[in-house]
Amino acid sequence: MRTTFHSYTFKALLALFCGAALFAGSAVQASAALAPEVQAKVDGYLKKLQDWAADPAIVSAVKAANAKGGIAGMNNAKWVDLADTAPEVQAILETSASGKVHKWGADSGINKLYVRDAKGNLVAGNNKPLIYNVAARPPFKAAITGKTFHATAVKPDPTTQLKSVQIAVPVKDGGSVIGVMHAAVTVE
Q1: Domain covering 34-186 in this structure, CATH number
Q2: In this structure, which of 111, 122, 127, 171 has its CB flanked by the most CB atoms within 10 Å?
């Protein structure tokens, strides 16, 4: 009888805990919506990113990167160890596609802007990102399927540490998704 009581008590407590966790999770989810003025800013930048991602120079750079593949032997751990002035970094940041990204990235409403190939490797950027390959990150995973993405919470950006909302759009060649453009919208 004692085992049954303890077993019952454990199951009841587990159910209570799980219910509380689900409730708390839904409360967090519900409170994660962006403020209307932030959502409006994010929507505006999603439109800009869609226009920029359709630029022929960006599409061409992503197609070339997909054909070539990423930097041989590069991974995120090696990338982190590279200085901003390293030849591998400068080879990406000094391309004509990065020139356009630098121009667009000078917009004070965003604090970073990157273009990625179909595998998540960096193709162009307005600065050296913290991560070379973002294939496992939610913005990339959503945009590579053809969807636009925006985070539902304001958080410090991993690269710039500024309060931001992450956004991403697909880069398309005709109707085919070939890469991703992503940015961090600055929230003050």
Answers
A1: 3.30.450.20
A2: 171
